[in-house]
Design goal:
By secondary structure, the chain is of the alpha/beta class. Strand 2 and strand 3 form a beta hairpin. The C terminus is likely disordered. It contains 6 helices and 8 strands; from the N terminus they run E-H-E-E-H-E-E-E-E-H-H-E-H-H. The chain starts with a strand and ends in a 9-residue tail after the last helix. The strands form 2 sheets. It has a 6-stranded mixed β-sheet with strand order 2-3-1-4-8-5, with helices on both faces. Strands 6-7 form a two-stranded antiparallel ribbon. The longest helix has 17 residues. About 35% of the residues lie in helices and about 20% in strands.
Length: about 210
């Protein structure tokens, strides 16, 4: 089994992004699956292009995109992506779409095909805070998740895909208001590895566990 895992570069004035920093810490093989790691830019248009090129090149069995959700206190697999780009801040290219569809020919929303409940259960059983999320927002994270699921719907029906949001890294919280949630990068990476294990274990029954 081959799994592509992506993480974003820093954005919004941050010097690190825990998404890719945690992805970098993952081993090259998890539960027998080959792990392909990819950094994607926090840019609406370019992130979609980079993801599509990687999918076409590697033809993975599953794709997990990872992004930062500052303010969340748990690792949160996303259940749905919406066909909307509506940015409260500019992306790293200065683009700030308002009320724009991601794909004019796409569905209003797509649901993940990853076993998100099993992923959450596996992380929580290991003592890592995790929960399902029903909103990936409307910034680049949602855009990338929607693009992935659109590709699966139109071109790669056998491929599984979805998105995981992670909290701030602990070093980021130093400059945030007191009480801002954060998580150690190694703990985030451990949670992601467990999520991958759940994907591998549920390969034959993913739709049951969504």
């Amino acid at each position: 089994m081959k799994i592509l895992i992506t993480g974003f570069d820093p954005f919004g004035g941050e010097t690190v992004n825990p998404a890719y920093e945690a992805v970098r810490l993952l081993p090259d093989t998890i539960a027998g699956a080959q792990i392909i790691k990819l950094q994607v830019p926090t840019r609406f248009a370019l992130s979609r292009t980079v993801l599509e090129a990687a999918v076409n090149e590697h033809r993975p069995d599953a794709v997990i995109c990872v992004g930062q959700a500052g303010g969340r206190s748990a690792i949160t697999p996303e259940r749905v992506a919406i066909n909307l780009a509506d940015a409260s801040i500019p992306d790293n290219a200065g683009d700030q779409p308002v009320d724009e569809p991601i794909r004019k020919d796409g569905a209003p929303a797509y649901f993940t095909s990853l076993p998100v409940k099993a992923m959450v259960q596996k992380m929580r059983a290991a003592g890592i805070p995790a929960a399902l999320s029903y909103t990936a927002g409307s910034f680049v994270c949602n855009s990338l998740m929607y693009t992935l699921l659109y590709l699966i719907d139109r071109q790669y029906p056998a491929m599984r895909g979805g998105f995981i949001h992670v909290p701030y890294a602990m070093e980021q919280a130093v400059s945030k208001p007191l009480g801002t949630p954060s998580m150690d990068l190694h703990q985030i990476a451990r949670g992601l590895a467990l999520a991958v294990e759940a994907v591998v274990e549920n390969e034959c029954g993913l739709t049951v566990n969504r």
